[in-house]
Amino acid sequence: MNIRTIAVLAAVLFPIAVISAPVVSAQQKPPKPHAESRFGSHLPPAAIAALQSIRPDSIETHVRFLSHDLLEGRGTGQRGGDIAAEYIATQFALYGLRPAGDNGSYLQKVPMVGITPGGDTRFTLVSSNGSATDLKPLDEYVAYDQTQQPESKVDADIVYVGYGIEAPEYNWDDYKGLDVKGKVLLMLVNEPPSDDLKFFGGKALTYYGRWTYKYEEAARKGAVGAILIHKAEMASYPWEVVRNSNSGEKAYLKLDGNPRLKAAAWIQLSIARNLFSSSGLDLDRMMAAATSRDFKPVPLTVRLSAHMTSKVRPFESNNVIAVLPGGSALLKDEGVMYTAHYDHLGIRPDMPGDNIYNGAMDNATGCGILMEIARVYANAAQKPRRSIYFASVTGEEQGLLGSEYLGKHLPIPAGKISLDLNYDDVRPLGANEEVEVTGADRTTFYPAVQAMAQDFRFRIRPDAHPEAGHYYRSDHFSLARVGIPAFSINEGIKFKGHDEAWGLAQDEDYNKHHYHQPSDDYHSGMDYTSDAAVARFGFALGWEAANQARTVDWKKGDEFERARHAGD
Ligand SMILES: [Zn+2]
């Protein structure tokens, strides 16, 4: 980066200096080319001016409105959520951005269904001698019928398939060609343990380890059901989490022709132990066997006999999408995308006291950042070469549903979107000295991210828990799985004037007392410096990606590389 840009960025980082230290003197020296990388930062003056105009108080104002009690917790498909979508669409219109939703509007309709398991659902294990055991809902198992029918019957053999993974790039196949059509598959969560980075990402979790993959793969292979064995250390969360996120109504995208399971279930470890022993097998031995590449599926002598009943409630919600057309005739058909989910958990009417899940941090902050970035792009004196898309998505808290739908119904083909930058839950804690960009290192854009972080004087904070697979739990992942290089930007732990322990304590307090609770409220007096800082950082990255000669790609061998090049 040249001296002038450093001076400007220094001014951006220390806003008081903007007033007192004019950058004119630095302009008199000839700009030095960036010495460190071939990407580097080549932002033109118009982009620097635009990012300088990003204001913390604009972001705060959006947060204040979106987390107001009047918005009723922005529930997906509920009035408050719809008002939030209209508010964001209105902002996009005021900035002069073009609509990129359905039929020339800013809204993209996302058809969904809510499924509530019926009280008369029966989930029964039948052994070869005919003895039947009814499992207790929530205590011993949870199960949803993903076929979106009011009633389904399952009566099928159970086959243990280890981790239930077929991953050609790691030379791993738990199925070994076995036809599992019409079967119920019993499997482990997570993936074969390894320290080898080239094997399922070493200690880090890849998508193959997530429960969502296991269900999808089982359905693709024609199984009628899949039962995941819950082991706390393997799932990295206790049974209570499984239980809480699998009770009551659960939302799904409306059927789209993809195969679905009649029974997508979890069982407690103790139930799995019994299930194996009544087939004359040992759970621990079976778990050990699954860690070998030579593992073969093991048919059990026990069948699943299930009568699934469900209340099926169709509803809809909307993603909000706008575009700033690019300035280059050659590249404006390609784009860079910004995303942030606007939905939260709504209201829980039966709860005494404050029962509105305002979601100020999660994710009114990300929406505020998205809108502020959109505003300054629209007002910039110059346009980046590629088009810039802004998508505020719905249904994140229901399982990344809005972004999944967006990934399957993009305004331009996935291969033409160079990069997605996502914001989720960026708490206003002051002047951050770090950024988190988990997943960026998997893309060819990483050198640019590193150079930019250096320009902004940010240390890049590594993912503290790669084994927990956080990368797969936020909206950028929905775009990654259709091949688009994507990651979230957040603020790290270390803030100016505080030590790391302070940052960690803030995290702990938030996670314990406010995360996904009605107390995630707006309070005046919080310091939005960090929100503005990560907005500027993301603006700079997006502009740079939009102007590069080539679109961003995944690094060789990455699990999303295949999706990126599926259409080549
Ligand atoms: Zn969120």
Shape: globular
**Structural class label:** alpha/beta
How many DSSP H or I helices?
18
Heteromolecules bound: zinc ion
Major pleated sheet: 15 strands, mixed
* Poorly predicted segments: 1-40
Mean pLDDT: 90
Q: How would you describe this protein?
A:
With 568 residues, this protein is of the alpha/beta class. Helices cover 30% and strands 21% of the residues. It is built from 18 helices and 21 strands. It has helices spanning 3-13, 15-20, 24-27, 45-52, 56-66, 79-95, 211-220, 232-235, 239-244, 269-277, 283-289, 360-379, 401-408, 446-455, 476-480, 500-513, 529-547, 561-564; strands spanning 98-99, 107-117, 122-126, 132-134, 141-144, 151-160, 166-167, 172-173, 184-188, 225-230, 250-253, 263-268, 298-324, 335-341, 346-347, 356-357, 387-393, 417-422, 434-435, 459-460, 486-488. It has a 15-stranded mixed sheet that branches. β15 (346-347) and β16 (356-357) form a beta hairpin. α4 (45-52) runs antiparallel to α17. It is globular.
